[in-house]
Amino acid sequence: MAGREATDGDGLPDIPRLDPGAVAPIRVEGLRKRYGNVLALAGVDLTVEPGAFHCLVGPNGSGKTTLLRTLLGLVEPSAGEVSVPDARLGTAFQRPSHYDQLTVADNLDVFGALADADAAWAETVLARLGLDVVRDRIAGELSGGYSRKLDLALALQKAPAYLLLDEPLGELDDVTKLRLLEFLGAYRDAGHGVVISTHNLGQFASYVDHLTIVHDGAVLLDTPRESLDVPDGELQELYVERILSAASESDGEG
Amino acid sequence: MSLRTILRKELLWSRHRALALLFVLVLLPAAFAGASVFFQSTLPKDAPVAVVVEDDAVSGAEYDVVAASFRLFSKPVRYDSEARALRDLERETVYAVVSVPPDLGDPAVDRVNMTVTIDGDMTPYREPSGALVSVVSATMNRQLDTRVVVDREVRGEERKLASYLLPSFLQILVFTFAFAYLPYNLASEEAVLDRLRVETSLDAVVAGKLLFFTGLLAVPLLVFHGLGLGLGYGVNLLAPGAILAYGLTFLACGAIATAVTFASGFGTTGRLLNVLVLFAFLGFSGLVYPAGFFSPLRRGVVRLMPTHYAMVVVRGTTLRDLPPAEFGTWLGGVALFALAALVPLKLAMIAYERGT
Lengths: 254, 356
Description:
The structure holds two protein chains of two kinds. Chain A is built from six helices and nine strands, in the order E-E-E-H-E-E-H-H-H-E-H-E-E-E-H. By secondary structure, chain A is α/β, with parallel strands linked by helices. In chain A, the strands form two sheets. Chain A has a six-stranded mixed beta sheet, sandwiched between helices. A three-stranded antiparallel beta sheet of chain A has the order 2-1-4, covered by helices on one side. In chain A, strand 8 (210-215) and strand 9 (218-224) form a beta hairpin. Chain B folds into two domains: 47-155, Rossmann fold (3-Layer(aba) Sandwich), CATH 3.40.50; 161-355, no CATH class. Helix content of chain B is 63%, strand content 10%. Chain B has a five-stranded mixed beta sheet, sandwiched between helices. In chain B, 38% of the residues are buried. Chains A and B meet through helix 2 of A and helix 7 of B. Chain A: GO terms for molecular function: ATP binding; ATP hydrolysis activity.
């Protein structure tokens, strides 16, 4: 598996280890979600294994965000079963989701208390994401990149068994993206599940353990990375080809 | 031409905001114009007045004469006990108490004295009660051979309008806090709701918000009380009954405002609707003018508003130092109203969670 470098050596405390065998997988069977006349999810089957880096990839409007929100319990399915283990879930949404009027430290304090987070680990997250320099800044005044990092910190500070992130790299500069990817890889290596919803698979190519391509509310491809005989650099291309092929089939049927 | 393009943009914008514009330009003006029917006259022409018949010697005809003389400017209500009538005077169920004296219709009696009792704390009724006494006196002396002298008696000190208004202004602040500031505060935190729903529950978030803002009311309460003391108004805004009434009013109104906010998906329509509801509560809670003023229609609406009873409790406990137990039933009613307001709130939250 790619991207399994050591979690140590950066002078920062280790990520707490989790035995993936002790956590049940997330299972979705026949999941359908309808918003009025729009069928957002059209019978999705999916299994997310613990301790894996799972990418949900699809174009805008494909249903991946609805799928992620359903896993989080924020969307009530119209039909189907969703089984999320009784384990901690951490999340960061596409839109900033923190208290704009509070400082970074206050936000971490409030959400840390809600999640019963370990204070030492919360400090580690702050340092690892480079948020310690803006600790006392009002969150609403942060740049887009710091704002996103704060959301990640809020998601991480309870050391969730599964980390569910919706387009986590948006608005981040290239250096920060790289550091964050390394961190997410290390988090996976420590036994935690990482689920990414994105339309830019290329950014995560060297970390992916499992790939699910979603198109028009249905799963187009659901496979372990190792079963795909393509190098990391061509994963995005593979995804785009699959989507274009599915779109032309839909047009042909239409 | 750039102006033409900008105007075209405004037109396009208005097409996408049809519902909000319909509300602002049609529904809101219609509501204001329509509300004018509730304020048809400035004199309390049908304010309820207790006509007490305690003495068996008073005949039905004598009662009828007294009641008829009051009918021009009020709505006489028969009472058999003066104590009960005076209690209802304190509770603003009636605005004056008059006892029908015996021998009113006896031509052998030269002169009969009759007293109209009003409450000194009910400042807005003081002047109308003077007019009422003059009219009643003239009417009765025209109809009866016996000379009738009608006196006006004021219970307690005659309170100045400034101190009478202090508890009302605080209630106006409570309404504004509930229907304007609370929804604004909720909307400013809308983006955090999804995270909060993952970490805890929407119920806990909303309960926390309502309880915290109810607690915050302690600050304006203390400010009003302090200013009242400084100005020598003799108004005890820290009376337990008043604190309870203000708190329950805020909880009920806050729940309604929050329900509207969630039901509208934090949209502009919800904000505008909350403004409309705020005006309704301000206009029909009997905050300044008691229920018997302006029109029978308004009185009917005011008497249906739980917040009117909260205001009466506030006036009774702050202006007249009455114990909260005196208003136990009404406080219970306002508490029930607050509980009932949680039902639409819960439904709106369920709809919001299903819709996101």
